[in-house]
Amino acid sequence: MQIIILHSRFTAAKSVTLTHRHFAFALLLLLAVIVTSAALLYYLTLRHAGDIKFPFVRGMLVSAEQSDTAKKDKFVKENLAAMAMKLGEMQAQLMRLDALGERVQGLAGIKPEEFNFKESPGRGGAESAGPGDHRGHDLSMNEFRGALDSLAKDVEHRADYMNVVETTLMGYKIKSRLLPTIQPVNVTYNASGFGWRLDPFTGRNAFHEGIDFPSPIGTPISAAAGGVVIAAEYHHDFGNMLEIDHGNDIVTRYAHASKLLVRVGDIVRRGQHIADIGSTGRSTGPHLHFEVLVRGIPQDPHKFLAAGADQARLAAIGAGIGAGSPKAVALAAK
Q1: Digit-coded pLDDT (tens) for 200-225
Q2: Is residue 104 situated within a structural domain?
Q3: For residue range 155-169, what is the model confidence (pLDDT) as tens digits?
Q4: Range of the domain at 279
Q5: Which of 137, 163, 245, 305 has its CA 20 to 30 A from that of 46?
Q6: 208 is a domain residue
Q7: Contact (Cβ atoms closer than 8 angstroms) between residue 264 and residue 230
């Protein structure tokens, strides 16, 4: 396109030729002016929104704010509902974990004042920047939800672990109760120990397969451990005799009793009164002949009773009572 320009100052007419480039530049310039004007108007509108008196503009701003607020409220309510459900699940898990912890605490012999599951542990320290000088910040909703989910998983894993620990400790406790470590008669000495001795009837050297506890007739005899009665009979050598199977091929024998208080097939508990001392069978006087057999082979009962005495002493020290007191004896029998 060619434009001819005429003016009184010009001695001759001048012409200007417009190409496609000129039109494209003019169009870009016009678009730039429009965009700049719109941005400026938008900025001024938001900047001075409170001073604008036009109802239409104010209505648009209020509508936009309400829409934004409604979206935020909906987001918060949805997240709060989900977190409330998660929190309820965690509270139930924590109650279960507390009960489980108290059971494990009892099995492990830990004092409640040493470790209380229901009290929050003390925490503290100075607030400082993290590695790389990372400053602290308020948690966002998504960060808080992620932390809550992670905590719920940790609680669940710990509950599973505590279940395993409880099962293991319970197994150990059951096994310990089935070991004959409780002295069957409350006396301070024995008249004849385990091993070679002179037979009181023949005077010849003979092997004594148990321990003799002398005590008056009628003195209670207690089960050295829990188990099942497999023999309750009269034996020509042992007189009135009891045998208790404790599992794991361990059997205890109680001989020369004046009275048997249990029968074959009875389940007896550790420390239960099962018979009374007498002098029946091959006996020189009232006493209890006590044996421990492992796979039918006699073992020195003193080793088992000494282990029980050590356990009672440690339990008494842990409970803060005297090792020889009645409380310590009762504690060892549990």
Answers
A1: 888 889 999 999 999 999 999 999 99
A2: no
A3: 777 777 777 777 766
A4: 195-333
A5: 137
A6: yes
A7: yes
